[in-house]
Every structure is written in structure tokens, then in C-alpha cells.
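Re: the request from the purification team.
They wanted to know what the chain is likely to look like in 3D before they choose a buffer screen. I agreed to run a prediction and write the result into the notebook, where they can find it.
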Amino acid sequence: MKKYDVLVIGELNVDLILNNIRGFPEIGKEITAGDMQLTLGSSSAIFACNLSIIGATTAFLGLVGNDDFGNQVVNTLGQKQVSTEYIIRHSEHKTGATIALNYGEERAMVTYPGAMEHLTLREITMDVLQQCRHLHVSSVFLQPGILNHLPDIFLRAKNLGLTTSLDTQWDPVERWNLNLKKILPLVDVFLPNDQEIMALTKTGNVHSAIESIKDPASIIAVKMGKEGSLGYQAGKKIMAEPYPNPDFIDAIGAGDSFNAGFILKFLQDADIEQCLRFGNLMGAINTTAPGGTTAFISFEEVKKVASEKFNFEIDL
């Protein structure tokens, strides 16, 4: 028996979210926002929190500063029943922060990486990995200390019998220097969104992108926003319809919540269509409250929202 179902390796930061913004920022001018929220940020942390709430025992490995934002990150993860025993507090680097400007279903973000840039392969030990069934790595372009060591990280995990998943997230400098041909044979589930997979493969549409990497990849699950999700496995593509939310709040963390739903079902040996549908549902539930984790207060609340808003009865 493993201590944890999932180990998450990723960036850690807080989010300062601005909503109801009156106009667009311009140099030398000031605009106002109607609402502000300071909350746990980080794509990886949102995934970990929401995965924990819906039923997978989850631990996090990452770096934060020895500061107030670091305290908030660690405390919030703990409140969501995510183990923080592998989080490293760094006295020389500040905890990262993201300012998110929401405009309807679109958003612009500015991130100060801080401590997250300094996680290295040295901290990802065999002793930690062997405590877990599954390894999920996210936001690799924000973590230069591990970016070039992804094959080594995944190989360590596979040699210990873990299943693996990867969500690269967006490359802020848009270089997209990642050797997918070397990495994907070691990844069981690849979880990009539509824009990311096209940028990574330098193709013009999602189907061409999938075709270009389908040989080394095992499972590909592409998040496509309001269009739902597209999966690929063993030569077959499957489109899963979305769950429209008429009371949409914001999309922060919706992709991470999709990942949480998909990986939970994957760990339960569900087929790819079930994984896609449950991922879509978790992404939709995420949009019913602001930020990435506030819709995931408890598993009972998630089940209630799924039933009342999306006519989906969760039975796990």
C-alpha cells in the first residue's frame, strides 16, 4: 500500500484576482476593478486541492519562501487535506505571486515566479516518489530548475512503478523548447489545452497536433474550453461534450479541475471517455465560484452542484 495516491510536483504561488475591471490597463493611466480576491494560486496547487477534495490522497512537492504568502500557501493546502510534508520553505527566495485580470471568460496574468524557479532534481528523491501511486507534474516552463530534467524525473517514477501525467501549461516566453519525443514515452496521460498542444507541436490545429505526437504518447486529453475535451488513445479520438454553466463566474483553475477529474477516474481504471466526461464536469463545477478552489469546499458540496446545476449524479 502506498501512502498517497498522487504526488504533485509543481509551482506554488498566491493569486491576486481582479474582477469587474473597468477598461484595459494602459501605461501612464489608472483603471479600477469592482472586486478583488487573494487566494491560493498555482495551477499545480489548484489541481492538488481539488483532487484531494474529490477523493484522492494527495501530497505536494514544491518550494515556497519563508514569508506570509508561503504560510498562506501551506495552510490552504493543508485545509484541503493535501499533505505538505514535502514542501520546502526557502529563506533566500520569496513565494511566487500571480496577478490575474479577469474579463468575462478570458483573463490576463502576470506572475512573479520567486521560489518556484529554484526546485531542482535533487529534491525529487526516490524516497518521496516510492510513497505514491501516481506522479503529476505541471507548469514546467515556470520551473527552470527541473525543465531539462523531466525525462529523468519521469523515468525515476516509472522505474518505481508509478503511473504519470504531465500538464506543461503555457510557456511565458513562448519558446516551447520541450522534447516531447523523449518525454511522452514516459508519460501515461498528457493533459495540454488546445492552444498549448498547437504551440508545443508547431501545428495549426488540434488534430494535426495530436497526429504529430500520437506515436510516443499513451493517452492525450486536450482541454478545449466551451467545446469540451478531445481524447486520444490507441489510435482512436473521442470528443466529450462540455457541461455549459449559465451562471458562469470565471475560468480560473477550470483546466486544473478538469485534470483532477480526469486523473481521479484514470486511477480508478475508468475508460478514456469516462475520464474525459468527469474532467469536463469538474471543470464546469470550477466555473460556479471565483478562483480555482472555492467551488471545491467539500466532496458533498461538489456532488450537490453536479446534481443541481449539471444533472450529473456522482457515485464514487
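For the purification team: The first helix runs from residue 43 to 53.
Please add any questions underneath this entry.
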